[in-house]
């Protein structure tokens, strides 16, 4: 796949962002200023202020003299980065790789994306018109390299779409400043009479390196495509993701379901071909109003079954608010796992944890009650009951130890709760106990089972456990902490039997 990049230039980023939040500023010439040594310097000027003679870098006092009704506002440090980040996150609906280009632009890796908008011209028009409609004075260009796209967006007057392999011709007539060079290098080039990049393209590399250093050669090679330029994306792209733009905004649950099914069909076909199964998926819905809503599902084991995954998403559709409509669906699979090909048999069904039916049932239940409500436990090498099990990370995870699993209550409290107990003989099981102000008469008891504390982890008394049944037929697991020494021994409730 040929690489293609888009560079977006926001000509009045800071002032446009402020005017969007304060619409009354759109009809007023205003500038943003910051103190530099003993002077107040303009850091950004609105389009109207520039038309009347106030420019970035000018002293605020000189600007006031040139523009009588000039409004001066203090600049906020870091605002450009914040605005570009928000704009970059918005652009992720058009490509998964968006990088910030300080201090007034974005660079997008659009390889393989433009065909979704009927080609690069429609793609560029879609993005620029929406940014301008939002209130940002923006220009954009597309080329084989990020450097050429950056240069054309800011300095060229020709077509903003440079054909494949045309970067040298597009750069030839542009000034050296289009190479993103430092000010001192540009000043040196100007003194030596270099007026365009074409003059630099035909000079030997050794001469350029000796006179201007490595930076000029690096920027020139990056712009011409001789050296790859690495972009740092705002959000690392998910390896498994599919996108579905809509010709008309989707507002109904039926339409959302159809979009999910189409995305799952493409994604699952790719996963199946690579021997992968989906464990977690996120559906991101980009709305017409610029907002994003999303829904997610998780599975207990890897799956590339479209019907099963679609049933899980159908439980989440009601939570998606389309508002004025959804214009783009993005389905991401941030967590996948390898799947073994299982031989299907007509005469036998898979049983136990190896069967897909159990995993799919748990996925559907989790879609209703939440994934954190279902757990599978494995033994852990600890004597203390609350430490003797651990939560399994998957349905197929196997125990790492042969530690014996003792009979324990169905519900084990993470922290034992104190109870009041009366026993006929101190070392005997209780005859009654009081828990949360309710009296329980014990009619049957089994025990004691003594469990010693793990002395290498902490200090304290051992426990003597009893399984008791009260007069209402309820069964509990209680214990006495330590030996009875003639005083009042402390008793605790630790679990409930079925």
TrEMBL record:
Occurrences of domain UmuC (ranges): 19-151
Domain of life (superkingdom): Bacteria
One family name in Pfam for this protein: IMS
Keywords from the UniProt entry: DNA damage
PANTHER family with a match to the protein in the record: BLR3025 PROTEIN, BLR3025 PROTEIN-RELATED
Protein known as: DNA polymerase Y family protein
Organism: Mucilaginibacter sabulilitoris
